[in-house]
């Protein structure tokens, strides 16, 4: 856009329709709130939500809106909440579990896709892939391992297909992790080669049985500490190989924690699955011992900065000329705020009460 005045972020999103996966999650809530509050002229936010624990998608959205982070909006501009629209579906299903009519609605209207849904497997065994690589419909006995690759990797294929069919697409932002190569001291904003052919790996495990998957797990994971990192890395490579012609950006947050500034609430969190959960259980006395090297730096990033980065990445895609490679943004505090695990532990002891 040389020679032209670039629109502001609010101006770019004005009139735009945004499709969001993972809107009920920690990062998702922050992104939704930020868009509604700072981009009040946004066309509409279409939220992919599934039924969960006997609650309908509509009931789940109401639960999301009960979060403290939405209080300023409900007090000052409640009318913007009418811009929220439910799309019933589930990323674990083919075509994201959407009906044909909803699929057609999205491809006709959507300008920006924000893929925030992810499976972290915090309570699962860390180095097990059994069942993870099976693309299947959800049943009562499907494990979180099964969901991990479906959510973190295979759903990306469906999003690519949706993006190709969208008539007015301007941006897709995929949320990954900054730890795609945890063995390296420096993670650059570039794609890292995936060891092996991910298509062959998926096919092999999908066609095999649990015992076969168990046997090949150590070889597959390599240096990856868990299936979350492994499947996120796989998804990045899938994007690089299959969707570099689309307007896509990748945002890689480090360890996400509570909000930093009064924008709109300082210190807000809604999740026990992220680093804030550790802070809470330490403060309550449930966790008294942590195994960590005290001199190792910990990279913490507040969720409001992550949501800002995701929204800005969509804006930058939509206001820049296409690039030959997919841009990657590490959302990290490295170089700005350094803290070791030892310093963090002392900080917790000081402020836990």
UniProtKB/TrEMBL annotation:
Domain named Thioester reductase (TE): residues: 20-116, 145-310
EC number: 1.2.1.84
Keyword match Phosphoprotein: no
Keyword NADP among record annotations: yes
Catalytic activity: a long-chain fatty acyl-CoA + 2 NADPH + 2 H(+) = a long-chain primary fatty alcohol + 2 NADP(+) + CoA
Lineage top rank: taxon: Eukaryota
CDD domains: FAR-N_SDR_e (cd05236)
Keywords from the named record: Lipid biosynthesis, Lipid metabolism, NADP, Oxidoreductase
Its biological purpose: Catalyzes the reduction of fatty acyl-CoA to fatty alcohols.
The protein's name: Fatty acyl-CoA reductase
Species of the source: Priapulus caudatus
